[in-house]
Amino acid sequence: MNKKDILQQEHELVFESFQHAFGLKFGLELIDYIQSHQLKSVGVRMVYKGLVIFQYLMDGKSEDIWLKRKERTVIESGHSSYYTFLHQDQYSTWIDNDNYTLGGGGFPITENQQVVGAICISGLKHDEDHQLIVEILRKLLKEDHL
To answer: b vs e for 19-34, b when ≥16 Cβ sit within 10 Å of the residue's Cβ?
Structure first.
């Protein structure tokens, strides 16, 4: 995946009006996907306008530090955490900072061209975390517009 692909995803997967119920729907869809494909346990966290609207740690997950790091990376950069991974030179001060992560798994909730939250997954390989968010967002946003 390259920088252009990531930016395209960020521009494509946006909300006219985000609703908390979407967070629940996303979280349940993600958990169902993980279980039905027998993937490793993950943690998921969704934050909207400073509120945690969904968080779930599957069996085997005991902390959410990576979810918080991915969230902070998305909120402060205004981009997916995968974008920061691909632009490490731009975010070099975050490389050794325990408050951020330069790896996939955090994706912006964008509403009216503003990043107002983050969807974060941790537990798979960082690019798989990112791709899973993108796949589920595409599916659910498409369903909402039908």
So the answer is: eeebbebbbebbeeeb
